[in-house]
Description:
The chain is mainly beta. It has one domain (2-304): Neuraminidase, CATH 2.120.10. It has four helices and 24 strands. The protein has helices at 2-14, 38-41, 158-161, 293-304, and strands at residues 50-51, 67-68, 74-77, 85-91, 94-95, 99-101, 111-115, 121-127, 138-146, 149-150, 154-155, 170-171, 177-181, 188-192, 194-195, 198-199, 203-204, 216-221, 227-234, 237-244, 255-256, 264-268, 274-281, 284-291. A hairpin with a 2-residue loop joins strand 23 and strand 24 (284-291). The longest helix is centred in the N-terminal third of the chain and has 13 residues, at 2-14. The chain starts with a helix and ends with a helix.
Amino acid sequence: xxxxxxxxxxxxxxxxxxxxxxxxxxxxSKDSTILTGEYLGQKPPGDSLEIxxxxxxxxxxYHTTPVFTPDGKEVYYKMQGRNTISMMKMENGVWSATSxxxxxxxxxxxxxxxxxxxxxxxxxxxxxxLSYQKEEKxxxxxxxxxxxxxGEPQPLGEELNSHELxxxxxxxxxxxxxxxxxxxxxxxxxxxxxxxxxxxxxxxLNNMINLDSLSETTPFIAPDESYLIFSxxxxxxxxxxxxxxxxxxxxxxxxxxxxxxxxxCPQVSPDGKYFFFMSWYKxxxxxxxxxxxxxxxxxxxxxxx
Length: 305
């Protein structure tokens, strides 16, 4: 019954989202279309909400929002129902067709990629039983950039992977990692600080962000940790919020991103220009983007409240 209710709510909700005009023909990245330029050669969205790379990337069934490397030459994303990570790469100014990658022959699935702000690490989730675990579960892994690609992945320590995890993780420039845990029975956002090359026991973020009665998921942390964007489940409807850090280092009251009716897996591009998120349109899970100026506007609103 809960699932049926959620589907009905989504159908009603998403008629308010106006996407970019559909192209005359859906084009696969495997076709002969030549893509050049930043962000797969797409026209910047300005302040409007536009479907990203419609006709270039798959039209639906995303599990996470695409993430770009800091140089803008690689993009990674996760599709529903696949055990691989999808990626495209720009070489000599031209984007390749989509390829499915496996980061290790020792793992059976790869999901929800996250690129560190310096581009030197890729974090992802994978289901595998670790030595201290009684059964297979979702754990956080990472691989380091090598001259010929990504190195062999390693799991993060027990401090993090003892948590019941789900979905998107996000990492700041100093290495601090933000993720969602169900350890308390409700999905909350935690942070594990990276000190002297080691991740510490995660701390649950304060009650300004984590409400006892609602679940908070899919965090995105700004590289300098000046703001946090996340999704909160409100009766089956996922609403995006942004929370800014005050001068004393604490988190201010989250601000609802009201112009986005439903959102998950927020991302801000490495150059700080664009804001991406995953949403629903006509029953499909699609990717929208808009100018990241929306965050500056909400920051000013937060200061005035």
